[in-house]
Amino acid sequence: MILRTRLEDFKNIGYYLGRIMIGLALVMLVPVVLGLAVQETNPALDFIISLEITLLFGLILMKLCYTEKDLNWMQGMIVVSLSWVVAMLLGAIPLYLSGHWKSYLDACFDAMSGFATTGLTLVQDLDHLSLSHNLWRHLIMFMGGQGIVIVALSFFVKGASGAFKMYVGEARDEKILPNVIDTSRFIWLVSVVYLVLGTLALGVVGILNGMQPFSAFFHGACVFMAAFDTGGFAPQSQNILYYHSLAYEIVTMVIMVLGALNFKLHYHIWMGHRKEIWRNIETRAFFITVISTFFLTALGLRLCGTYPEVGVIFRKGFYQLISGHTGTGFMTIYARQFINQWGDLALASVICAMALGGAVCSTTGAIKMLRIGIVFKAMTEDIKRIVMPERAMVVERFHHIKEVFLTDKSARAALMITLAYLGLYGLGALVGTYCGYPFLQSLFESTSAAANVGLSCGITQVGMPALLKLTYIFQMWAGRLEFMSIFALAGFFVAAVKGK
Amino acid sequence: MIKKVQSISFFLVSLCLCVFVSLCCAQPVSSSALINNAKDYDGKLVEYSGEVIGEVMVRGAYAWANVSDRDNALGIWLPNDLIRGLLYAGSYKSRGDTVAITGIFHENCPEHGGDLDIHAQAVRKISPGRVARERINFAKVNQVVILGGLCLLMLILTLFKRK
Prior knowledge:
The structure holds two protein chains of two kinds.
Chain A: H1 7-27, H2 29-37, H3 41-64, H4 73-97, H5 104-115, H6 131-146, H7 148-155, H8 162-169, H9 180-208, H10 213-228, H11 246-260, H12 263-270, H13 276-279, H14 281-304, H15 310-325, H16 335-341, H17 343-356, H18 369-387, E1 397-400, E2 402-405, H19 408-434, H20 439-450, H21 466-481, H22 484-498
Antiparallel strand pairs in A: 1-2
Chain B: H1 2-24, E1 27-28, H2 31-36, H3 38-41, E2 45-59, E3 62-68, E4 73-79, E5 94-95, E6 98-109, E7 115-127, E8 130-131, H4 138-162
Parallel strand pairs in B: 1-2, 4-7
Antiparallel strand pairs in B: 2-3, 2-6, 3-4, 5-8, 6-7
């Protein structure tokens, strides 16, 4: 029997949603300050309007739904899934007001793409966008990468036990420290430390590349946020190709890989346990999948003779591949070059890399390395069971921070999420094909959206059908939250209609 | 007979001229055409025009300028003496110089790690850039004031309820 949703459920959800909105409004102060500092008056006004609208909705919800009760599991999950939708709707307001997005749907597309750290974009004339709007595009990636709720947990929620429910709902099932709020704060500490170091590195490389100091550091900060949070936006329309610099590409590759690592692994490395890098199932799986998908990409590029030189195959092939595998979506080629020059084998390898993703509890999307490792171990266990005598006890284990025995429950959970992702990739590919695009291209773009990557083969354009825009928005949302919160939201609606 | 020889020689001279012009003179082409038909244009002299965007990045005796024709921006590799006339690059606060670049197009430039680029031989300024003056949008100012008032009212109501 499904229990009917009660008014109390709505009040709890509304109250916490209101708090998250107020958190979002406060973050909008950052581009307001930048806009005023660099004398971009109209962009600053766009952000003040958006800030006020967000604050107003937040205050109304908090007043109407005022409660002192804590969240239960279902409510926590629903707060998370709805907070991403609300963040998209409110975060899109300043983008739309700038006039660089053709419709509010396009602005919502970019806002979801930013929050979900995807990187697909429908912006028009990006090269003339204000610094404030550009900062906002990257800031929403920084927030989304860490998790919108993590922002709220770190700064606006004090000691609520419901915090853990929201933390889990945001696709982070691993606690680094015993307390979830401390964990959130640690994630922010890691991110801010890398932000400073990464911005410095990219800023210095930018200056050496001939950029003006202010612009070099501004670009450095934006590109860092997009790289570490495996987002893929960049301040200029050519993405990373704008810089024409090998050094810039190397630094961004290092940052992308850092962003694709588990925050728990960062913690252990910071604590001096460096051997964990080599022993962890995720880093091993990541290494193996990067090597194998790159081998196939290089073979594909070699076969179609696109890049005659090995160095160029590495620079172009490996960069797009690692960008896709980490879920970043930075590009040093034009979108149509994937179709015109890369050939089907190289394209299929990049699709595989995008579908796999980085580590759990990182800023990446997609299936993720822990699940790939577990599914592989489960398959090995089953094969061993068939091959070995019936009485033999077959036990598989793996190292993930500590030694873990493989259980049927963990294998089932990993397989379920893997299948859900494969279904999501297929859904977008079918809709793309229905809209008239070739299947391989549709699969490429769909995987990129659902795995929160951002590489594009040219389908994502202002002129693409609204149905496809909505499908990609859904894919980015579901892919980022790893389904559980979305299932909970669907269950909530079912309970509201059919519950007794 | 003489007339026949004259017409044949006229035809041959015209043919030679056509071949010479097509080989030595640049073809004006858009960024989309270059990207979509990169193989056809690879190694050929092309003329590409658009607005200089971002900033010109000097690298020793050469520099990178990115030029956008509104569809895409392409990287232009040019000697420093060709950038002297470039005063504005497009951004929020300025419209960049509009230039016509004549140069060799590369599908995968071997000198620049496989970048799709143009090595400029000549730069002609079509129209100069300018500072883009921002006019304050007073409709937005009004919205800020009204929404600010509503926020303040809501904030007071919320505080009142708590007490």
